[in-house]
UniProtKB/TrEMBL annotation:
Chain spans, region Domain III, AAA+ region: 176-392
A single cellular component GO annotation: plasma membrane
InterPro entries: AAA+_ATPase (IPR003593), Chromosome_initiator_DnaA (IPR001957), Chromosome_initiator_DnaA-like (IPR020591), Chromosome_initiator_DnaA_CS (IPR018312), DnaA_C (IPR013159), DnaA_dom (IPR013317), P-loop_NTPase (IPR027417), Trp_repressor/repl_initiator (IPR010921)
Record text about domains: Domain I is involved in oligomerization and binding regulators, domain II is flexibile and of varying length in different bacteria, domain III forms the AAA+ region, while domain IV binds dsDNA.
Composition skew (Polar residues), residue ranges: 146-167
SMART domains: AAA, Bac_DnaA_C
Ranges of biased composition (kind: Low complexity): 115-143
Domain of life: Bacteria
Organism annotation: Nanchangia anserum
Name of the protein in its database record: Chromosomal replication initiator protein DnaA
Residues of the AAA+ ATPase domain: 209-338
UniProt binding sites for ATP: G220, G222, K223, T224
Alphabetical UniProt keywords: ATP-binding, Cytoplasm, DNA replication, DNA-binding, Lipid-binding, Nucleotide-binding
Length: 518
């Protein structure tokens, strides 16, 4: 229990931050839910619920420490930790929700404000059998071409997805490696065989002849997955090595923050102390001259000391505009490998693996059906499987090709013809839930906004090529782990909450229609 004097000083410091300091609404929101745990010597330990909140708080650390010191009458420092038991910064107040409870209606849980006409309707034939209540059949469906579900829970409380709702594990805080992205979960096919062989070789002999390893290819083809897989493999073979995964956006933010807080040297030491640096989506550094300069020095330092560097990009080094020749030529020092779009057999195998991981039994003809329709982007392919299995689970039906055909009827990838942007998704989502775009991107953790925001993030992940940090950036500068959390949360809810499934279906259709009409 925190001492009364300390608790009172903390409260006064928060008030002063609000009244005297130019802290924005996001910062204030975070301060208000920050929990003081106690003091060790002159350091006040604070707990927040996410990396996003921690970073936010740390940017105001100096000011906070000055005010706290004045309030306590003695020099104070702060140390911020993440406590996942706290309500998350996204207001997700059921982080440890047991799978089974998600199948019951919580009476005082209004959730987001859904449009009155929206997806609680009973679909017209030939949509699958519904478990809707009689009253819901009186409503009209806004999207008769899309299968929708009644808001009542399925009669059979055995949601396949709900049973494995806790399967997804968090990203490692130190290495930033996603435990789901390993070589064992990566399907090898003609399109990625060479890249996988090179990745394996680099992982087995870090700093060897494939240094740097440069992996390039189109969106959603598995570059990030391979990058993480290298990290895991290095650590499993050499647990003593230091591995770090970083997206280009994170590298940029880290660099900018380090300069702003006068900690440039600490930044350099942190990045130069690693044995394997995995840098994702290097193309996002284009045009950021100072960050590229810093990356250039990081690269040189690491290469000189024999550390392995692996870089991914959406294009080969030669075509990377915005980088000086000296940087591009370094990218070509080692080995460059590309990943091509997966062929049909590989796509089927990926779906098979995904279904196995999710512990959902899906017959081969259904997997073939889905794989035939989604050929350019594995992320979309996976999203399609999630939708089909979620719908089958919610409506207690077997997963058949007919059902898949209905669910995916309007969900064909048409990215070549239309451009779906984060702004479009935000605008459609805000309109649909009757909230403002500002609120959607704000720090507010109200339940209704949280779910609407998570749905918008899920749709950004599925319908755009944006990276996780880029999506976080569109939603008030949130951390990429918040986007991963939102993605997992919504994928789970789609299988257990008909209204969420319907929101996703309806919004996808509205977003695609809006993109086509532009
Ligand atoms: N060969 C594969 N085997 C298993 N899963 C795969 C494979 N290729 C891609 N995936 C899955 O597809 C999804 C998208 O892959 P990933 O994020 O690695 O793509 P990317 O090439 O990095 O895309 P972007 O350039 O948009 O960041 C991930 O969930 C990943 O696990």
């Amino acid at each position: 229990m925190i001492e009364d004097a300390l608790a009172a000083a903390w409260d006064r410091a928060v008030t002063r931050m609000r009244t005297e300091a130019a802290v924005g609404p996001a910062g204030l929101g975070i301060l208000e839910v920050t929990r003081p745990l106690g003091a060790v010597s002159n350091t006040l330990l604070l707990a927040v619920s996410s990396m996003y909140a921690k970073r936010h708080l740390e940017t105001s650390a100096r000011l906070l420490e000055t005010i706290l010191s004045e309030e306590m009458g003695t020099p104070m420092k702060i140390a911020v930790s993440i406590d996942e038991e706290l309500v998350t910064e996204d207001g997700d107040d059921e982080p440890n929700e047991p799978a089974q409870t998600s199948l019951h209606v919580v009476p005082d849980d209004p959730g987001p404000h859904r449009p009155a006409s929206a997806p609680e309707a009973t679909p017209s034939s030939p949509t699958p059998r519904q478990t809707t209540s009689a009253s819901s059949s009186a409503r009209t469906s806004p999207t008769p071409h899309q299968p929708t579900l009644g808001s009542q829970r399925p009669a059979t409380p055995t949601s396949q997805k709900a049973e494995q709702a806790t399967a997804a594990s968090p990203v490692d805080a130190e290495t930033h490696l996603n435990p789901n992205y390993t070589f064992s979960t990566f399907v090898i096919g003609a399109s990625n065989r060479f890249a996988t062989a090179a990745a394996t070789a680099a992982a087995e002999n870090p700093g060897g002849s494939y240094n740097p390893l440069f992996i390039f290819g189109g969106s959603g083809l598995g570059k990030t997955h391979l990058l993480h897989a290298i990290g895991h493999e290095v650590l499993s073979l050499r647990p003593d090595l230091r591995v770090k995964y970083v997206s280009s956006e994170e590298f940029t933010n880290d660099f900018i923050n380090s300069i702003a807080s006068g900690r440039a040297l600490e930044f350099q030491n942190r990045y130069r102390a690693v044995d394997t640096l995995l840098v994702d989506d290097i193309q996002f550094l284009q045009g950021k001259e100072q960050t590229i300069e810093e990356f250039f020095h990081t690269f040189n330092a690491l290469h000189n000391q024999g550390s392995q560097i692996v870089i991914t990009s959406d294009m080969p080094p030669k075509r990377l505009g915005g980088f000086e020749e000296r940087m591009r030529s370094r990218f070509e020092w080692g080995l460059q490998v590309d990943i091509q779009p997966a062929d049909l057999e590989t796509r089927i195998a990926i779906l098979q693996k995904k279904a196995e991981q999710e512990r959902v039994a899906v017959d081969l003809p259904v997997l073939e059906f889905i794989a035939e329709r989604f050929s350019t982007n594995i992320r979309e392919l996976e999203g399609a499987l999630v939708r089909v299995t979620a719908f089958a689970s919610l409506s207690s039906q077997p997963i058949t090709t007919d059902l898949a055909a209905i669910v995916l009827k309007d969900n064909v990838s048409d990215s070549a013809a239309t451009e779906i942007t984060a702004a479009l998704i935000q605008s459609e989502t805000a309109q649909y839930f009757n909230v403002t775009i500002e609120a959607l991107c704000s720090a507010s953790r109200s339940r209704s906004l949280t779910e609407a925001r998570q749905i918008a993030m899920y749709l950004c992940r599925e319908l755009t090529d944006l990276s996780l940090p880029a999506i976080g950036g569109h939603f008030g500068g949130r951390d990429h782990t918040t986007v991963i959390h939102a993605n997992r949360k919504i994928a789970e809810k789609m299988s257990s909450k008909p209204e969420v499934y319907n929101d996703i279906t309806e919004l996808t259709s509205r977003i695609r229609a809006a993109a086509r009409s532009k």
